[in-house]
Amino acid sequence: MPMIGDAHIHIDYSSPGVRDRIIFGGLLAYDQVWQAGAHMATWLETNKDLEIDGKELKAGKYGFFVIPNQKEWTVIFNRNWNQHGKDDYTEKDDVLRFKVTPKISEEIKEHLEYKVEKTTENSGTISMSWEKVTIEFPFEIK
């Protein structure tokens, strides 16, 4: 829950383990929505408007979903943040969608981990790492 400028960004998620499984393209099928955590959908809350991928994400609380793919992931912020997994997910509630390129590592990250890191007084990056995959995207405080 870091502070970047005067913005407080909170990510709440359950952290599943790899446990000798193939996660992406195995346990989690490619090209299908995933709640980006275990059990309840992952959510992000910000007290300030953010700019992500050239688009505005208004201050508020959002469900955080992804659609994994070998070459490109879709990152989704959805107005329905309080749901079990993706049970109640519907694309019509999406407020922001954009694409990122996953980074693949030889090292395995056993437990899902999110990081919010400050890059300047008014900007930062959000990353998610699990198994051999990391996705990351920059944001700016508006």
Strands, count: 10
The major pleated sheet works out as: 6 strands, antiparallel
Shape: globular
Distance between the termini: 18 Å
Give the strand order, joined by hyphens, for the main sheet. 1-2-3-6-7-8
From the structure above, extract its key features.
DUF2911, mainly beta, 4-stranded antiparallel sheet, 6-stranded antiparallel sheet, 10 strands, globular, 142 residues, DUF2911 domain-containing protein
Structure, explained:
This protein has no helices and ten strands. It is an all-beta fold and about 140 residues long. Strand 4 and strand 5 form a beta hairpin. The protein is globular and about 40 Å long. The model has no long low-confidence stretch (mean pLDDT about 95).
Explain briefly what this protein structure is:
The chain has 142 residues and is mainly beta. The protein has strands at residues 3-4, 7-12, 43-46, 50-52, 55-57, 60-67, 73-78, 94-100, 103-120, 123-141.
Q: Topology of this structure?
A:
Elements: E1 3-4, E2 7-12, E3 43-46, E4 50-52, E5 55-57, E6 60-67, E7 73-78, E8 94-100, E9 103-120, E10 123-141
Antiparallel strand pairs: 1-2, 2-3, 3-6, 4-5, 4-10, 6-7, 7-8, 9-10
